[in-house]
Amino acid sequence: MNLIFWIIYAIISLTATVFLGLREFHMLQLNGYKTPEHSWWMKKNAKRYILPAFLFLAQFLLRPFQPHDGLAIALIIVLCLFNAIIALINKPGKKFKKPLVYTARMKRMMITFGILVAIFYVIAILKGKSFVQIDGIDFCREETRWFIIALPYILVGSALYLTPILVPLSNLINKPVEKAVQNWYINDAKRILSECPTLHKVGITGSYGKTSMKFYLDELLNSQYNTLKTPESFNTPMGVTITIRRNLKPTHEYFICEMGARRVHEIKELCGIADPHDGIITSVGPQHLETFGSIENVVNTKFELADHVKAKGGRIYLNGDNELIRKKAPEYPGAVLYGLQEGNHYRAADISVSDRGTEFTVTAPGGETQRFSMKLLGEHNVQNVLGAIAYAHGTGISLDKLTLPVKRIAAVPHRLQLLDKGGNMTFIDDAYNSNPSGCRAALNVLGLFDACRILVTPGMVELGAKQEELNFEFGQEAAKACDHIVLVGKAQTVPIYNGIKDAGYDMDNVFVADSLNAALAHVNAYQSDKKKIVLLENDLPDNY
Questions:
Q1: In the predicted model, is pLDDT for residue 464 greater than 90?
Q2: Can you give the C-alpha Rg of the chain in angstroms?
Q3: How many CB atoms are closer than 10 A to CB 218?
Q4: What pTM value is reported for the model?
Q5: Distance (Å, rounded) from C-alpha 83 to C-alpha 77?
Q6: CB count, 10 Å around CB of 341?
Q7: Distances in Å between the alpha carbon of 537 and those of 170, 431, 442, 501, 525?
Q8: How far apart are the C-alpha atoms of 319 and 87, rounded to whole Å?
Q9: What is the pLDDT of residues 382-425, one digit of tens each?
Q10: Lowest-confidence range among 8-22, 40-54, 364-378, 524-538?
């Protein structure tokens, strides 16, 4: 009978271990495979681990019971039920915004995890061989009873309850292997670059705006040159490496490399791979402060690109309207500044913004001027397009020849992308935005429309100690620009809610939803005499 109980318990526990393991691997992947960040995330989401921790302790209650005690059997049944609950809670099938990707690295980690779990089961089986002999045996020693009855259950249960620890442990165990694999791929990418001596490489970084800049610059340069850009958000060492190894051809003339960073020296690491001749820094601001630690570290890390370019004798293009960049710029003689303010080498003025697009006039360093028009919404987009114009002009393309490519520029997906759903509703999709400057710009764009202006947002994250303050200010600004506000996530959006209330907003026009789907359902049901313009501002990943 004990053997049957143990087999049932083991099967249920193993199923729950697999399902919980998949969920933990997914979160680890979303945290960039970085164990420190994942550990911080686990601490922040400690409530997820209350049940496994409770059950880990509860299973030790098996120890004092006799083999045939009803209490022991009842406890085993209860543990089985709870393990089944863990399996159901974590079962695959939930549609994530960004599902788990079974990369080669993920598969290797899963193998290591499987070995760790197997160790628990092998020991449990070895210790439980006496199950078949239990009936009729007179146990006279407590220790013998403990090992025969309790230990196999505890080992199998521990494999499940310790899964949140075994998953990052698998990552740590595999670290030397992964480092060797990455180094091989990176060295191969460097070899490929070395075989393209005429290829001109430009790095783009910034706290925000770098992805948009990459798309805009590619559109402009592609009007005259054969270009390659890193796709989507391939702005990590392996993302850049994959792009080079898969897509770079000898016929390419320009390689546009987006460079992202969450920690000090990560831009330096990317420069060591891509080796850019020139660089563009779009912005510096309070982004990823939880991992950077301070705004000074953000500034120094972004300017690692400028340091690399300076050492190579290349040219660095800087957003001269950004206060932190402007303070640092004098350290880089020959830097080209672009922006809307006076004193920039490339300046945009006479800006006209409507819900149909934007027009502006560019003045180049030599005094040449040109009027541009584009479909992009908002004055803030002029800055990034101006930076792309400045760099393209520096390669020898005249301002006049850039007017048509600028007119062709389309919104980058999920970055103030206008999506007309027909009927009575249009979306402004700004789901990839999560910084204070971008949020303000998005509210300004929303204000361009003569309509019922609705904001849907979960707020901003990864802002460190300033997160509550900046979300509070975001709420105050939203109160001035919106007719109706939908907040996603009750706990996450408390500072925004308080900011809206502090601004004297009619709180009857604020709705707090548990999920994005619930928020969108509310927006669809919301009645308005005017057309609804819905700003989707930020969409937190699945690990939030």
A1: no
A2: 28
A3: 20
A4: 0.81
A5: 10
A6: 12
A7: 36, 5, 8, 19, 19
A8: 51
A9: 999 999 999 999 999 999 999 999 999 988 888 888 887 767 88
A10: 40-54
The strand pairing partners of 371, in sequence order, are 361
Token output for 541: 């990943």
d(C-alpha 433, C-alpha 65), whole Å: 57
The token duo for 533 is 């313009």
Q: 155: which 2 tokens? A: 């080992």
Q: What is the pLDDT of residue 79?
A: 82
- Mean pLDDT, all residues of the chain: 88
Residue type, 83: N
> Which tokens sit at 161?
């309850």
352 DSSP β-pair partners: 359
The secondary structure of 197-255, three-state, reads: CCCEEEEEECCCCHHHHHHHHHHHHCCCCCEEECCCCCCCHHHHHHHHHHHCCCCCCEE
DSSP bridge partners of 202? 256, 278
Residue 486 amino acid letter: V
Q: Where are the alpha helices (DSSP H) in 368-435?
A: 379-394, 399-408
Burial class of residue 47, CB neighbours in 10 A (0-12, 13-18, 19+)? exposed
Which residue matches tokens 């308080």? 498
| Least confident stretch, 34-48, 268-282, 289-303 | 34-48
Distance between CA atoms of residues 41 and 352, nearest Å: 44
Strand partners, 55: none
How far, in Å, CA of 491 to CA of 5, rounded?
A: 42
| Integer Cα distance of 544 and 541 in angstroms | 6
Pairing relationship of beta strands 316-319 and 357-363 according to DSSP bridges: unpaired
